[in-house]
Amino acid sequence: MSNTNIKSIASLIMGVLSIFIPLAGLILGIIGIILSNISLKEIKVSSENGKGLAISGMVCSIVGVCIQIIFIGFIIIGFVSFSQYYTEIN
């Protein structure tokens, strides 16, 4: 019986958190991508379990990073449009 790779579990946790935590999710998603890459390489060399967890962590992390980038884009667009509206009023 082989053990599950701890980094693959951590990458899945980081990936799920990156989807739900605003702004800090970008950093968590990047950490999740790095951890899943490391764990996939370790799983290939050793006979540990957790390949599915690592792949799921990678997918969740990529989705979380994309969501965070879109969210930050909306914030920037909101600030720009509000500043233009505010300067037109005054």
Structure notes:
With 90 residues, this protein is mainly α. 84% of the residues lie in helices and 0% in strands. It is built from three helices and no strands. Helix 1 (6-20) runs antiparallel to helix 2 (24-45) and helix 1 (6-20) runs parallel beside helix 3 (51-89).
Strand content: under 5%
Contiguous uncertain segments of 5+ residues: none
Helix content: over 70%
How far is the first residue's CA from the last residue's CA?
71 Å
Characterize the biggest β-sheet.
none
Order of helices and strands: HHH
* Helix/sheet category: mainly alpha
| CA radius of gyration | 18 Å
Overall pLDDT metric? 93
- How many extended strands? 0
Shape: rod-shaped
The number of helical runs is 3
Topology summary:
Blueprint: H1 6-20, H2 24-45, H3 51-89
Helix pairs in contact: 1-2, 1-3, 2-3
Task: Describe, in short, the structure shown.
This protein is an all-alpha fold. The protein has 3 helices and no strands.
Annotation keywords:
mainly alpha, 3 helices, rod-shaped
